[in-house]
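Milestone M4 deliverable, item 7.
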Amino acid sequence: MHIAVLMLAFMTIANPAWAGATKPVKLVVLGDSLSAGLGLPAQEAFPQKLQKALQAKGIAVDMTNAGVSGDTTSGGRDRLDWSVPDGTDGVIVELGANDALRGIDPALTRTALTDIVQRLKARKIPVMLCGMLAPPNYGAEYAARFNSIYPDLAKQFDVPLYPFFLEGVAADAKLNQADGIHPTAAGVDIIVGNIMPTVEAFLGTITEQRR
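Output delivered:
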């Protein structure tokens, strides 16, 4: 035990960057009911399961679930400052599903998400966007205007994008709760598995910036 402690102390002194890499990355998931975990026990929500999956790979994160059921992109923007406290290392933005379900003008959604990204960048907090797709009932024109928001903003602000948050889960009755919208615990597992490579790359960028 004493030898292990001495080795740890030596590595910390010899390589301060290594020591910094072991400090948990403080992540906030700014989202709606899809990340809040509506209808699920708290430990089954997306942020909690993502944290467990990262920790299983030896990646230390301190995850905050800032998901609010029913929130639109405008709602997320309105609470941004208190949902993302100072000292946050990165934010995963999962918003827009309620905008699409309510048929909100995509121009308003685009403006709100733009504001969120700009304000976080002004605070020097890295951002990762989770994309959303419009339901087919609003027609092709609405879908084209809405669906283009996320890739456009990712390119404009040079931030990582996971194209569709519900990839592999949407429209699969076995992976959704009775409302057909919110994933079951098994559905959340699939989302976490699919999104992991994008999140790992995002965390890698954050760790590099710390050095």
